[in-house]
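To whoever picks this up:

The parser on our side crashed when reading a file containing two proteins. I've narrowed it down to the boundary between the first structure block and the second sequence. Both blocks are reproduced below exactly, byte for byte. First block:
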Amino acid sequence: MKRGRGLWLYVAAMGPGLIAAAAGNDAGGVATYASAGAQFAYRTLFLMVLIGIAYVVVQEMVARLAAHTGKGLVALIREEFSLRWTAFGVICFAIANVGLVVTEFAGISTAFSLFGVSRYISVPVAAVAIWALVLFGSYRYAERVFLILTVVFIAYPIAAVLGHPNWSKVVDQAALPHFIASKSFLLLAVALIGTTITPYIQLYEGGAIVDKGIGPDEYKYQRVDAIIGAIAAIFVSIAIIVATAAVLGGTGPLQSAAQAAHALRPLAGPAAEALFGLGLLGASALAAAVVPLSTSYALAEALGFERSVSRNFRQAPVFLGIFSAQMLIGAAVVLVPGNLIHLIVSTQVLEGIITPLTLGFVLVLANRRSLLGTAANGPVARWLGGVSVVGVGAFASVLVVLTVLGWFGVH
């Protein structure tokens, strides 16, 4: 009986970690992982293993913070840090999330382009539909539909096997570093970090655990959810890289969604583009609603304003105004002529630069015994967390330095 009850508690706790991890495989994630496979074949696999370790460590710390304090990440930052640090953190979260909104609308446009629909039609229609759905419709029902559509990305692990990759290279380059000393490789490395350990995922996971009412007694079950979710997300990410590398490896930067869809041909044949398009549409539409909502919640909470999707504009003008502004900005930026795949990857680079700040907040909070007591990080967790933050920060810092030097003609 006890064993059966324990299993049920594990199942009941499942959700926040798995959903947060799945959110990483949105438009930005798929485009960035596919670009890595197309441009550098299997050379980024070792980096993904390191990112995966950092991802597991971070997700576990966020889950522990939420379960033991009953508060989300933004609320903890507001209470534990100075007003200046809180304002700086919230602004960075907002910038990162606006970049994500742009990415999701780019994903919607890219998905519709596979069916011959112009971005100048698909993006405005999608923006108005998602905006109206959140404000006036049944958002929960639409969320379920979007989640069902994203299930098609499970096809990538199968496509990776059917694509007959060079398994000896896969194992070798996943176990040992095969980095390339170039700015393009560094850019993609930072983009991989940004799209995998994105601030939005940490904000969502912490908030979802609090909303679910998971406390210290249930934490051991939630910990399993967080770790399994992170491992599953990395597994799918690596599968996308391997599948794309097997079909397009070494051909150069990804230029279109059709190329990304081509990696599914070993599995789906001529239907690969349609399969990829449906999955990308579902993932992008879901995130295009959730990401700006998470920003609205964070900013409204920090400023002390009313925050609820059940309120109208008169009752919650700041909350709904922030949401609407993000939708407008995201859609407008995507309508500017240009290569959407390049735009998506570039926004993930921005995420990668901001990510070290998020990880720094999480690590400091998880280390504080005044906040968590005996649940605070032990020596091993402190060491792993510190290495993760320093490693991610180092990649981002080198990229920033090279970019600034480039402004002065130094290459």
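<<boundary where parser fails>>
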Amino acid sequence: MVRPVRAVRPLFAVLATLLTVSTAHAQAPADSSARPKVLVIATGGTIAGVQQAPGTLGAYRAGTLTAEQVLASVPELAQHARMEAEQFSNVASTFITPAQWVALSKRINTVLRERDDIAGVVVTHGTDRLEETAFFLYLTVRSDKPVIVVGSQRPATGISPDGPINLLAAVRTAAAPAARGKGVMVVMDDRILSAREVRKAYQRVGGFTTGEMGMLGVVGGGGPEFFFTPARRHGLTSEFDLTNVDSLPRVELTFSYPGGTGPRFDTLPVGVVVATTGFTPAEGAAYRTLRQSGVVVATTFPSGDNVNAPPRARAPGSDTLPTNATAADSAALAARSGPPSVVAQHLTPPKARILLMLALTRTRVPAEIQRYFLTY
């Protein structure tokens, strides 16, 4: 007689059992008081995602599991830190706005300032906008305690989800004394990446990179190990204090392309970041008009990998002054071209926009904004 195949328990039931067991196992042993305390602030994303058909490669809804459920699914966390969870939001990261960046940064700054018992903070986040949120926090969290942003490329109920191992690596990094002073970091796929350089290269596991620079270390069996530290200004030394900032100036992001004529706005923004390798004559004229109208224009390489220093007295659509130029020559160029543009070094266009938004909360003088771009 052929025996019928026993039905496989639905994955949701398995997940529920796992969460129950995990909660029991996550109780720290008696000596847990010696372990550092890590606060996890959850914003949603794929790491908290649940599929319509669990256990498949099908569609899922990001930001479904709560912060407590995500933590409970990784019992090993209790072996490395005393855990606390806080739900900031529970959405796909495409719903994260600049106003939420400000609120999240203020919350992290408050926690790190008022609670000496917190060794570090981990922010769980969707990967579509992870690099932007991480860079904003890198510029505005004024503490030397580690802040780690982490996500996943596969949902919690998917086949081989990467969220649990990423979260474990992030918590271990946040709890490590060696992580202090490194600025905000992204931990994905056992790699420790500086938030200044990190970018999402593709939508698969291993898809986060830092280009030519920015990988600070790795997380192995023995925990996090650092090999490099960021050189640009960040953390305690940051000048971007959000205490009295409730909203960010409007900065638009544009692209230059063959045959381009430049942007046209019904209402002028405060600033514009343009990704370009060089302007058409029409684009040069358009951006010159914007600068003459008081709009701060910043240029960046489309790939974000350009590291050339800003050229002397050069602006889009204008000539470069010769090395023997006089003050009168400079004045004539300024009158003809308007204030010079700002040049970003090794920043992707979205990150250059973030830095310009923050710089504009302090000044609208292009020379001073250029200093920020050379410092951060």
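After patching the parser it read the second block fine. The first strand starts at residue 37 and ends at 44. The chain has a mean pLDDT of 88.
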